Amino acid sequence: MTDTVLVLNAGSSSLKFAIFEMAGGLPACIRGAISSLDYKPKMKVSDCAEKGSIELDVGRDNLDIPEAMDLVLKQLAIRGHLDFVKAIGHRIVHGGREFKVATVLNENVIGHLRELVPLAPMHQPRNLEIIAQAARALPQAMQYGCFDTAFHHTRPHITTLYGLSHQFTEQGIISYGFHGISYDYIASRLREKYGSDAGNRAIVAHLGSGASLCAMNRGLSVATTMGFSTLDGLIMATRSGSLDPGVVLHMLQEQHLSAQEVEDILYNRSGLLGVSGISGDMETLLASNQPSAKEAINLFIYRISQQIASMAAALEGMDTLVFCAGIGEHSPLIREKIGEVTRWLGVEIDQTRNWRGDEDITATSSKVNILILPTDEERAVAKEVLPLRSFK
Asked: What is the pTM of this model?
């Protein structure tokens, strides 16, 4: 086997991993994920030496990130992959203003990333834990960070500002945007399909447990729904999405909740879970007959319709609509509902293609091209890491 790069992608409730050979177009050697870390975690591994994927018994009701990372390292060691790893690429949620491209993770960089923990409290600590753990387990491998915020640095300056005094802007209280590694990958897919136009005015719906939209003009970010933190924009599995700041003041001043309690509510007990009172998992809600589950789904669609209109306004129109991430890729009913509420924008989804899960689900009468493009954050990270070092 040739030298390889290990990619680690820690989400709010999952840990994904992949190893790619450095030669021959980055073929994947192994991929896998541990999902639902906080409740009955499941681990799937797909090794190129084996046929299909296998599901492994985790043997635990919940896992923290170090425990999940230990399981990943154990599986990679069993399969003989660790000896060939010469670089490790990390998806890091927040790069702040400083980090606009992939970079070596030295002590100085890691120090800056620690300062950003309050801006992404669900994700950044997990990213930092994994970096430290990977350094101990694979001291021979150089580590690199790729940042979810980096893709959105192309937005016009005006779109990053809030209606706050200049002193707060200078302190970094601005809109950063997230899911950038996913959006960068989708932009590359659009260039493959449409050339340099990249679908021209494209709105990409990254709909997973974390959810956002991005307006792209020829593959560059123009606007996005997440802002200063990963709470902003659409409602998500357990996150509130956009909220009147007066609600937070009311919680603090009138209900006498602590800042920590409010943080827990907004990040962990809101969104689909909070509205339904059942689950933050879309598949579970779609299977439920409870009125509260239907209400949560309807609110999810309503907020998406609002924000798609906002993204279309930023682009002054829409030529392409892309669905990606877990819900976007795997829920034809949610795609159908989004198509219905955006019909006024020229969106017409072909029902047969949609329920079959075709890449192109555009109806012949549609004025907008509509695609399902599975995102691949791990490959996007590997591509960013590859030019940074010569592997010998």
From this structure: 0.91
